[in-house]
Write a structure and sequence with these properties.
The protein has 175 residues and is an alpha/beta fold. It has one domain. Helices cover 25% and strands 26% of the residues. The strands form two sheets. It has a five-stranded mixed sheet with strand order 3-4-5-6-7. Helix 2 (76-97) packs across helix 3 (124-135). The chain is globular, with a radius of gyration of 16 Å. The protein starts with a strand and ends in a 6-residue tail after the last strand.
């Protein structure tokens, strides 16, 4: 048996023994707690928790510069500082306050970038920028690092990073 979650046109299938929780719940009263913003999913593995954020510029419904920004290095600093890191920090804070932080955390950003004509290696500077910002948001680094590692994956590189989790794209009509 397996668990299936969807975010837009991307569908992920996890083994049944992997706990997956949607943190970014839409249309729920009193959610998220006031002032917090969350990643899409928390995926609890045996030895770590993945904070999974999905961005999909290739989604047939994605419109405008925000979606395209994930493919443009000039936009990365703002995306990392204003969106990705706050979601990681707030999600971790929530997990910590709910006493669900006994395992190591990894931050995973999945970019549905079929429009990106390569192996995704040009996203390494985005991963490095994200990792640096997760460690240090002010003039000095955090005294207690909360994310041990981060991964920026594309649809094409997903299986290399997470071979046990199946990723597929459903058409806009099916989503």
């Amino acid at each position: 048996m397996s668990q299936v979650v969807e975010e837009g046109e991307l569908k992920l299938t996890f083994p049944n023994d992997t706990a997956v929780e949607r943190l970014d719940r839409q249309n729920c009263s009193n959610w998220p707690p006031n002032g917090l913003c969350f990643v899409d999913f928390a995926v609890e593995e045996a030895d770590r928790v993945l904070l999974l954020e999905i961005k999909d510029p290739s989604d047939s419904h994605a419109r405008g510069p925000k979606a395209a920004g994930y493919l443009q290095p000039a936009s990365w600093k703002a995306i990392v500082c204003d969106e990705l890191v706050p979601k990681a920090r707030d999600s971790y804070t929530y997990m910590h306050l709910m006493e669900r932080d006994a395992k190591e955390f990894a931050y995973v950003v999945l970019i549905g970038a079929e429009r990106l004509p390569s192996d995704g290696s040009e996203l390494e500077p985005l991963r490095e920028l994200l990792a640096a910002r997760l460690r240090r948001e002010t003039t000095e680094p955090w005294k207690r690092p909360y994310v041990a590692d981060c991964v920026v994956a594309t649809v094409e590189t997903w299986q290399r990073h997470f071979p046990d989790y199946v990723l597929t794209r459903v058409s806009g009509d099916e989503a």
